[in-house]
Amino acid sequence: MFTGALAGVSLFVGVSDVSPAALLAGGVDGRAAQVLLISRVPRTLAIILAGMGMAIAGMIMQMLARNRFVEPSTAGTVESATLGMLVVMIFAPGLPVIGKMLVASLFALAGTALFLRILRTIPLRSVLLVPLVGIMLGSVIGAVTTFFAYRFELMQSLGAWTTGDFSGVLRGRYELLWISAGLTGVAFVAADRFTVAGMGEDFTTNLGLDYNKVMTLGLVIVSLVSATVVVNVGMIPFLGLIVPNVVSLMIGDNMRRSVPWIAVLGAGFVLACDIIGRVIRYPYEIPIGTVVGVVGGVMFLYLLLRREARHG
Q1: Measuring CA to CA, how many Å separate 156 from each of 86, 232, 283?
Q2: Does the residue 147 lie in any domain?
Q3: Which residue intervals of 122-210 are DSSP H helices?
Q4: Residues in contact with 179: Cβ distance below 8 Å, sequence separation at least 6, in sequence order
Q5: 17 in a domain, yes or no?
Q6: E strands of 178-307, at which residues?
Q7: Biggest alpha carbon distance in the chain?
Q8: What's the whole-model pTM score?
Q9: Tens-place pLDDT, residues 283-293
Q10: CA–CA distance, 290 with 273 (Å, rounded to integer)
Q11: Which residues, other chains included, contact 210 with Cβ-Cβ below 8 Å and sequence gap of 6+?
Q12: Is residue 294 part of a domain?
């Protein structure tokens, strides 16, 4: 209900007057109605879809890595997707958006698989080392991406991919995000398998499941969701880390029970941050990536300190 209320508020917040009075005065063909249908409704839908998708992707990443502090922006996934976008812009700039998304997905898949491979080869004595490894890997990939973006004069495009922003979302320019909604459904169907896989390879095999197939399915979902969001609206940091942890604190670790709550809370969190970004410096707008980064960073530190205090 709270997320629905935020979605309703999102439709009427902005520079253009789209109040009920303006809608009634202008009629179906009036400016207010056109702004609502062409800009506000697509933007709100894009926010909801991106929030749901990234929150679910973060939950799956935490299951696969068996660590509560991992998500696409702390595992090198979104940085790899950004590198894929840069490669497309250099070698095939005329590729359709769906083609760019698929290439970005392949790079995100490769980056995430590399992260999980690194985790298997190094001894990890603390859960805090896992996100540290991911952040370092993402930084290396980001540095390579920045270098080539600078060489090919694509820094402006790189900035658009690395900073989430819904201000450019219009009807006809967000529909690929519905893919993340479908993948959310797949995650719900496979929730029990991901829960079992999160208990380790030996445990999964003893229960008769193919551990590698479950891991591959999880990686594909995470990669496709991350690439879809990066291609359409840019990077939204910490979302997949904060929301699953908050839901876990409230209702536990049962993934099938958690998926709907994570999806709803993820959408609500992004809606709230987007509304804050639109009103805090009205009529100017702060990108959603900046707002989520600040709020998510503070909550990330709180979760880290809370865990350390519990185990200290």
Answers
A1: 11, 15, 23
A2: yes
A3: 129-151, 155-162, 178-189, 191-197, 201-206
A4: 224, 225, 228
A5: yes
A6: none
A7: 67
A8: 0.89
A9: 888 988 889 88
A10: 9
A11: none
A12: yes
Tens-place pLDDT, residues 47-81 = 999 999 999 999 998 888 888 888 898 888 999 99
Residue for token digits 């702390």? 74
Distance CA 27, CA 36 (A): 12
**Angle, to 10 degrees, between the axis of helix 155-162 and the axis of helix 129-151?**
150
Q: Kindly state the tokens that stand for 219.
A: 């990686």
Which CATH number do you get for residue 257? 1.10.3470.10
Short-list 280, 292, 304, 243, CA closest to 55: 243
Q: What are the counts of helices (DSSP H) followed by strands (DSSP E) for the chain?
A: 15, 0
- Residue 176 has what DSSP assignment? G
Let me know: does 235 contact 162? Beta carbons within 8 Å: yes
Are the C-beta atoms of residues 101 and 73 closer than 8 Å to each other? no
Amino acid identity for residue 309 in this structure: A
Q: 288 with 310: CB under 8 angstroms?
A: no
What are the percentages of helix, strand and coil residues in the chain, rounded to 5? 75, 0, 25
Number of domains in the chain: 1
The token pair at 190 is 């496979």
Task: Tokens for 279, please give them.
Answer: 């009103």
